[in-house]
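Supplementary notes for students who missed Thursday's class. We covered one full example, reproduced here. Read the sequence, then the structure, then the short commentary at the end.
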Amino acid sequence: MAIEAGDFRTGLTIIVDGDPWQVIDFQHVKPGKGAAILSTKLKNLKTGATQERNFNASVKFDQANIDRKTVTFSYESDGNYVFMDMETFETYELSEQQVGFNKYFIIDGLEVSLMMFEGDVLTVSVPAKVDLVVAETSPAIKGAPSNQTKDAVTNTGLKLRVPQFIEEGETITVSTDDGKYQGRA
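Structure (token representation):
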């Protein structure tokens, strides 16, 4: 299905130069003279690279058909993450580069979605929030304001700021969009 650049929306996947790209951000720009252009920020779903490109608003692109498959995380070995389809018992192996920042949110038994294009696994998509265990943090400071935060490290290696009352061994909810503390689990 052909999509005009003027119809872009955030999250749309298109094919540019034979590769699947996802629209991260876009803005319509109407210069004083000439045709309107579309200023975009795109992410290559194969390589993970981001790029800013301008297009004429009337240029057409093919939509990239991205398939999603629900799988369960099995284990990590030598920087490779192994996932299993629990219906077919087929396994998928992704490199640390393919998993990217999501590596901090993947725990044993977590159900995730694999994004696939033409049979190739591109990346993994995790839930919006996950529960992680605080592995390291300093003790609370007595008399500290309740809005004061401190450094903490989760069992997956994620470094974040948490409120003073959080202690080692507690389970917290973390946003996978930005890696920030959301509350106690």
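Commentary. The chain is about 0% helix and 55% strand. The chain has a mean pLDDT of 89. If anything here is unclear, bring it to office hours.
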